[in-house]
Every structure is written in structure tokens, then in C-alpha cells.
Amino acid sequence: MNPLFGEFIGTALLVLLGNGVVANVLLNNTKGHNSGLIVIAFGWAMAVFVGVFSVAAISGAHLNPAVTVALAVAGKFEWARVPGYVLAQMLGGMMGALLVWVMYRKHYETTECADLKLATFCTGPAIRSLPGNLLSEVLATFVLVFAILSMVAPKMSLGAMDALPVALLVLGIGVSLGGTTGYAMSPARDLAPRIMHALLPIPGKRSSDWGYAWVPVVGSLLGATLAAVTYTHL
């Protein structure tokens, strides 16, 4: 399989299962309604496990533009391949979000709160303070990427057996650092589904909060870059 298609499929699986658990918890009349943050954090960890395990042997399972950029900064991935990987990840994120909408379409219709509908696509701050929100995303992504770089050294990519520790890493970040902004840590997990929220005919939806959309993008890329620089200097 082409590595770019692997990134597309892996990221689509990641967002389908990750945003799917958010939809299951937040939308009305679902089997998992109101089951809470722990279920969401665990679901996202399993989403990472499935995505990484499924395509690790094909593409290295970056599944995140921030991870791809960090690997390039650390000298573990060719810069010439970065644009293709990022594009594949973004398209995969859009596909995953589309599938969540298809899966839970009837539940979107029975949910009145537009904020909850938006939350099934992308992250948002618990308390809106853009400098603090940005710091939260930088810190969470730093932890994610620094740990991943420690796992892949001296390899060029994640192997299939690294799927479980990465999943546990995301679980730990979710329960410890996810209370402020929802720990996006990836443009493919946040910006790509946010675009789909703007495009899809979701009944009673609100704006896609473009005034906040830059925070998880800039925060994840900055945190990943800082992690790569710190790792290489250690």
C-alpha cells in the first residue's frame, strides 16, 4: 500500500473512533450518553491504538502533522515527504469526521445544543483565554511528541508494537491535561473535522469557531517543534 494512502486510512480510523466516542458521550439518545471524560479519554486512546497498529508497517503511522513535522525537525523523516503526509492526514481527518456524522446523523437531529454538536468535531476551551489555551496545547503536544521521539529512536517510524505505549501515552495526556482545551494535539484531529463541521448540513449547528481554530494548530506545531529540538539537544 502507498504510504500516503496508509496515512489517509490511519488518520480516518483515528478520527472516526476518537470523534465517535465524543459523539457517543455528548449527543442525545446514544447508548453512551453522559458517560464522561474518562470514557472519552479511553476511547481516544483506543482510537490511537487502532490507527497506529493498522498502518504502522505501511507509512510509519504518524497520523498527525505535528508528529510528521517533529520527526523531520529531529532528522528522522525527509522534509520532502512532509507535504504529502500532511495532506493525506488532513484528508483522512475529514473523512473520519464525515463518517462520524453519517454514523450519528439521527442523534445530531435530536440534539438541541449546538455547542455539543461542534464538540463532536473539534476541540474548544473550557475557559476561553487564548494565551492560556495556547499554552495548554503546546504543553500537551510537547509531552506527546517528546515521548514518541523517545519511542522511535533510533528508528525512522513507529512500529506496530509501539501502538500500545502510544495509546497509553494519549490516555495519560487525556486524563491529566485534557481538562483545559480537550487536548487536540493535531491539526488533522481538529482543523480537518472543523472544516467538515462547516461544510456538512448539520441541523441547528452554530459557527465553527474560527476565532479559536488557530490555537490547536499553532499550539500543536509549536509544541511538537519544541519537543523535537529538546530531544535532539539531549
Explain what you see.
The protein has 234 residues and is mainly α. It has one domain: Glycerol uptake facilitator protein. Helices cover 71% and strands 0% of the residues. It contains 10 helices and no strands. It has helices spanning 3-26, 37-59, 65-73, 82-103, 105-110, 114-119, 130-152, 163-177, 187-199, 210-233. α1 packs antiparallel against α2. It is globular, with a radius of gyration of 16 Å. The N and C termini lie far apart (35 Å). The mean pLDDT is 95.
- SSE arrangement, N to C: HHHHHHHHHH
Number of helices: 10
Q: Compute the number of strand runs.
A: 0
CATH fold label: Glycerol uptake facilitator protein
Distance between the termini: 35 Å
What is the overall shape?
Answer: globular
> What is the residue-mean pLDDT, rounded to a whole number?
95
Annotated CATH architecture: Up-down Bundle
CATH superfamily: Glycerol uptake facilitator protein
Q: Specify the CATH class.
A: Mainly Alpha
Which structural class is indicated by helix and strand composition? mainly alpha
Kindly estimate the percentage of residues that lie in beta strands according to DSSP: under 5%
Main sheet attributes: strand count, strand direction, barrel closure:
none
Percentage of residues assigned to helices: over 70%
Low-confidence stretches: none
Number of domains: 1
Radius of gyration (Å): 16 Å
